[in-house]
Specification:
Length: about 325
Amino acid sequence: MKVQLVGFGNIGQGFAQVLLKKTRSLRERYGIDLQVVSISDISGTAIDEKGLNLQKALATMEKTGKIIDYPGAKKISGLEAIEEVPADVVVEATPSNIETGEPGMSHMLKAFEIGKHVVTSNKGPLALSFKKLKEAASKTGVEFKYEATAGGAMPIINLARECLSGDDIIAIEGILNGTTNYILTGMHRKESPFDIVLRESQELGIAEADPSYDIDGIDTASKLVILANALMGMDVSYKDVRVKGIRRVTLEAVKLAKEEGYVIKLIGEVRNSRLEVSPRLVPVNHPLNVDGALNVAMFETDIAGEITIVGKGAGAIETNSALLSDIISIWRKRS
Ligand SMILES: NC(=O)c1ccc[n+]([C@@H]2O[C@H](COP(=O)([O-])OP(=O)(O)OC[C@H]3O[C@@H](n4cnc5c(N)ncnc54)[C@H](OP(=O)(O)O)[C@@H]3O)[C@@H](O)[C@H]2O)c1
């Protein structure tokens, strides 16, 4: 199966690392022979229709940080690579843009138009125009897989689709952003104010230099929209979510909650067609009380009742568990 990688940052390079480790077991377990035939970043595209040397691609990034420095790479964009290079699957891992969905939106639509499957970790396009993307994929009969967009390594979508396929999902609630969970856990444990814990998280590389996407709840809201559309048959976009982030969570509130046996967590919830992201009180012994940068999602269903899943919501390697399982699922379905 020929794969095109568009976006070669943390996730893209993680994908290459995971493939280098898994090539043999993928062949032995599933009979898949995966070849990465192109890798694009903003600088250009490395192409080899027989399969690129992934070690060389990673070494190039370590040396110069640009894929254009891979021997023979061309100054063509990711979009042009999707159009021009023959392949079965596009792995889309460019930055998430919640305002326009670009560049991921154009990459995905182009891939669907010319009959390529898409596997992605990029939530922006899905949080904006899920229905449009689904329709574009079904028009040409290709697969659209996005397990990595909501909850990183946590198999939320596949769990619901495969294991809860006979249930109706009444509600989903959870912690879908590791950075905010890390900050709130730090405030609770160390009894330190928001600003101090945020600064520590930035120094550790857990929070971004501009943390607004996480702490203002935008990231959680995007993931909630994807889950609502994908698992509850809704047709909503990011603009339909009532969002309140954690900037205003004071140390006094955290301490008061602690005294009463609660923690404060940034919870995303979809229930009764309403989508909401807000800081909430969670009892310390409740399944949603997970520590550090962990994510958690709880399904409320009509038959199984409550099901909770916990895992790593991000990570260059961990998130690739989801991308890889999507690729394997396409392979199984198509072969
Ligand atoms: N990191 C995580 O743990 C994680 C977890 C779940 C989901 N995600 C999502 O996965 C996606 C990738 O995340 P990341 O952490 O790998 O981001 P990243 O490190 O910023 O990498 C983004 C990559 O996309 C490339 N790019 C940007 N614009 C492009 C364009 N127009 N055409 C081709 N390539 C382009 C960048 O190239 P340059 O470097 O040349 O600019 C870079 O190689 C994001 O949507 C993110 O939200 C990330």
